[in-house]
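Contributing new records

If you add data, match the layout below exactly. Sequence lines come first and carry their own label; structure lines follow with theirs. Keep one chain per record. Anything else will be rejected by the validation script.
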Amino acid sequence: RSGEGSLAAVMLFRVLLDRLSHPHAPASIPASLVAEQLGLSEDQTRRGMKALVQRDRLVEQPQAGRAKQYTLAPSVLLGQPAAPAVV
């Protein structure tokens, strides 16, 4: 659905930017941090992160036995416009 997770995505993107040590570094967003700082549920967090990946803002980097980590997508780092969202 168009727009699903958009508000959560904006909030999560800001938290992730704060957690990056440098633009190419991977970072994770622990569920406890999301719940405490943003008041988002697990479902809202999942939809928000999915929206960021689908909109080419983040690249997901699964880690075996650990929380997923994310890096900024090349389009964000290079200042390229993201592909238009499919409605």
